[in-house]
UniProtKB/TrEMBL annotation, chain A:
Keywords: Coiled coil, Repeat, Transducer, WD repeat. The lineage of its organism: Eukaryota, Metazoa, Chordata, Craniata, Vertebrata. It comes from Salmo salar (Atlantic salmon). InterPro entries: G-protein_beta_1-5, WD40/YVTN_repeat-like_dom_sf, WD40_G-protein_beta-like, WD40_PAC1, WD40_repeat_CS, WD40_repeat_dom_sf, WD40_rpt. Residues 4-31 form a coiled coil. This is Guanine nucleotide-binding protein G(I)/G(S)/G(T) subunit beta-3 isoform X2.
UniProtKB/TrEMBL annotation, chain B:
Residues 191-202 have a biased composition (Basic residues). PANTHER family: LP21163P, REGULATOR OF G-PROTEIN SIGNALING 7. Its main location: membrane. It is a peripheral membrane protein. Residues 11-86 form the DEP domain. It comes from Hucho hucho (huchen). Residues 307-422 form the RGS domain. This is Regulator of G protein signaling 7. CDD domains: DEP_RGS7-like, GGL. One of its GO terms (cellular component) is plasma membrane.
Amino acid sequence: MGEMEELRKEADNLKDQITEARKVVQDTTLQEAVAGTTLVGRVQLKTRKTLRGHLAKIYAMHWGTDTKLCVSASQDGKLIVWDTLTTNKVNAIPLKSSWVMTCAYAPSGNMVACGGLDNMCSIYNLKGKDGNVKVMRELAAHTGYLSCCRFLSDSEIITSSGDCTCILWDIETGTEKTIFAGHLGDCMSLAVSPDFKMFISGACDFTAKLWDIREATCRQTFSGHESDINAIGFFPNGNAVITGSDDATCKLYDLRADQELITYQDSGIMCGVTSLAPSLSGRLLLAGYDDFNVNIWDMLKAERVGVLAGHDNRVSCIGVSSDGMACCTGSWDSFLKIWN
Amino acid sequence: MEDVIARMQDEKNGIPIRTVKSFLSKIPSVFSGSDIVQWMIKNLNIEDQVEALHLGTLMAAHGYFFPISDHVLTLKDDGTFYRFQTPYFWPSNCWEPENTDYAVYLCKRTMQNKARLELADYEAESLARLQRAFARKWEFIFMQAEAQAKVDKKRDKIERKILDSQERAFWDVHRPVPGCVNTTEVDIKKSSRMKNPQKTRKSVYGPQNDVRTHSPTHTPAPEAKPATEEQLQDQINYWGGQLDRHRLKMSKVAESLLAYTEQYVEYDPFITSTDPSNPWISDDTAVWELEASKEPGQQRVKRWAFGINEVLKDQVGREQFLKFLESEFSSENLRFWLAVQEVKKRPIREVPTRVQEIWQEFLASGAPSAINVDSKSYDKTTQNVKDPGRYAFEDAQDHIFKLMKSDSYSRFIRSSAYQELLQAKKKKSKNLF
């Protein structure tokens, strides 16, 4: 196996060289650079609405682009579209499989999608002719559970799966257009860039990867976490990536510097991060943890500036509406709360 | 968590454990709720009582210490007595106790015939259910319970009290009171990959096994299948490509992040209060009505100057930009860009027709809205159009975008039309209130 050894050495050598190359541009750290900036004042958000209706753990939620509607998925086998201002249920969609893990709202507002242990992504048309919400497509090709899905448009959707791959689908034909393979562990989460040209995925191999949708290649890989990456998101300017992991930390990676900028951690936090969302300006990071709380971090100074405590069980999902006005949290206690 | 517990149990600096005298007997090996809170505040850098209670309740819910007279595992800052759980029962030993073990335990409880050990309602229900489920095995379970009860009777009274309470607390974690949080619940995404060889599958009451502890937050690295030659070669190619990428200096990156957050902070409702008010706080949807109206407020217009993407993102911004360009007879670039964006979202069967239409309108020779693309992109696009897909115009679109950014967009921002929008609304909004 002399050749294998050679190859392995070469691969390791390259990785070392890259670490060196990354060090070369470290003329400062983010902490030093923002030393002169004052910490954002204590952020106190209150629960303004509680959305009641699910009968079991809520696993996922996603805001619609119109800033008032959102969709949530629960283990009670229902997908509910809420008018968050009035707390009315606009749609309550029964699912074939109750083991749902993710849901998404199309930017147009015409469709929602969900998936889970059934290994499929089911697309529902909300604007059907007779007012009924029906399954439009069932996208089946993954050999593992569906952990996350996000629409690019009414015609395309990207999914991530426990089979370690992500797939770009054409919704109309129900077929896979591109398979993004490269992760060595279950893909747990994905996020699309603001310009819709790229997306990032976080996986159980402790790395996050940036993919070019059109070219179908992996542009960059970021490591540093010591456990599964459960949540991932883009910084609002599209040039940086935020990850949340079971190792109880969140990290900020910059795409142009190709490395980690800062880690958000605290000795008092001992449990994993389940979900995260940046505020509109990117100054604040809201992250949901296993200890039933959401911590608010000043993203530049890496210090906690607030806590949202109100759930009686793990916070499983979080999202900030597109105009930044409200934050929605979903929990295993079966409730969704709107905060601002 | 176990580090903190070890510190708590430390003889010198830990929580004082004592034996308390009660009516008829002594209560061995306890400490009060407020003791825990005090210790945490002193030793763990915790600022307030609320956080100490939260942390403490979590540790109790996981079963590291428990209230001696209650099934509900929470921490209260008062004289309620608590006891430490024995390491045998710690969650880090990855217990997955079977229902048969639970049945033996409940059965044993009924044999012990003491008022304080009476089963709670939910436990009685569970016992009834288990009896039905294990009807055939029941004789066996009964024998086990009997055997254990005998052993227990021989134990020292005080030792028994402690062990009994610890055993009860263990079951409180794994079979919680209905309505309480079950900390042993695992996310289904993770449970489907649990091939953790350290899971203790042996019976709780089986012979003492060699239990290994491990820290919950540092997962062992994923089982790496030995990489094939092809995979290694792929990796080498990938990392080789990565080596040569251009990396921006950290200082520049930090500067740009800082600048971005500073520029947008006034638009961030979590930091700067919005005007008109946030609908969730005031129940007044004025701010959304303003957004939907065709007349953009000053703050919104100001945002268009941050970058071309802001104008293109905002529907009213796009309209104003287009209007301005039309007044200059140079709108073909923007219209091309918008058309290409639109075709990317179309269902695949409509794409070929649309691509042809766009080609005819903007790029074909003699096109009515001819755009100027560099020859390289033009040639590539000509090729793409023969087998049209969503990204047929990608190169041309990138080129046009750069042109718009440096030319049309800057003119728009400097134009009197834009400046007027920026100024005029100020007066108007004053009149609204």
